[in-house]
Design goal:
eleven-stranded mixed β-sheet; EC 2.3.1.-; acyltransferase activity; 2 domains; GNAT_dom; Acyl_CoA_acyltransferase; elongated; 29% strand; transferase
Length: 243
């Protein structure tokens, strides 16, 4: 069973506000309390149900009105006609209860440890060995809430970092492995080590990856994570504050 904390975090935005449409397959809710950085969110759960939450401003911009006969296709058509683009769906993975319990009983393997600010030089060399595209997609940072790494012959070859998601006790995870060190199990061991540490601190682990990132999906499954849903959103970059 998925944890109540994780389930509530992901399902609650679609149950708050004014419901414009609801049936067995599609729910659309206008939620004024959505984060301004994600004013439109779409969640597809494993049962195939699609839930949408969007701000009143976005609902107005898309021409969505109460009483309209809606489904997923017509909703997406409204967005397209209004020039509102979704980012592209992510898979959402987390640990089921029994897998999380097994994780807590596991020992951290040799060559894997937590990284701190004292590892700045080692981490900089690691980043310099990775491509810009890999760094951007992984979003692994030494100043995140929790960071772990795997070493091979004294060199950092894989790192994972976590940060609390939306100020909750769900921690979002990113992982990056150097190309020359892939296929050796480093990422799986690092993911399990950092998730075990997070679980010991009372956090639920969250792993996201794009639907077409087959290597990342395979890593999630090999690390013992279970698919929860597919999630898409409109992302709005925050404006720089004026001095």
């Amino acid at each position: 069973m998925f944890s109540p904390v994780f389930t509530d975090l992901w399902l609650s935005p679609y149950a708050q506000g004014e419901i414009l449409h609801s049936d067995g397959a599609f729910v659309l809710t206008v939620n004024p309390d959505l984060d301004e950085d994600t004013p439109v969110m779409v969640l597809e759960t494993l049962d195939g149900k699609v839930s949408v939450a969007l701000t009143p401003e976005m609902a107005a911009a898309a021409g969505l009105k109460p009483g309209e006969d809606l489904n997923e296709e017509s909703f997406r058509r409204h967005l397209g006609q209004a020039g509102i683009a979704l980012h592209g769906a992510d898979y959402l993975f987390t640990f089921l209860g029994e897998e999380r319990d097994a994780l807590l009983r596991e020992a951290t393997g040799d060559g894997i440890r937590q990284l701190t600010a004292q590892d700045a030089e080692v981490f900089a060399a690691f980043e310099a060995s990775a491509s810009e595209q890999d760094r951007d997609s992984a979003y692994v940072e030494l100043d995140h809430w929790l960071v772990y790494g795997a070493f091979e012959d004294g060199r950092l070859v894989c790192a994972a970092s976590m940060y609390p998601w939306n100020d909750s006790t769900v921690a979002d995870l990113g992982v990056l492995t150097l190309p020359t060190a892939r296929g050796k199990g480093h990422a799986r061991r690092v993911v399990r080590a950092i998730c075990r540490h997070a679980a010991g601190q009372g956090y639920e682990s969250q792993y996201r990856c794009q639907l077409d990132n087959h290597a990342s999906t395979a890593l999630a499954k090999s690390a013992g994570l279970t698919l929860f849903a597919k999630w898409d959103a409109v992302f709005v970059e925050p404006e720089d504050s004026e001095d």
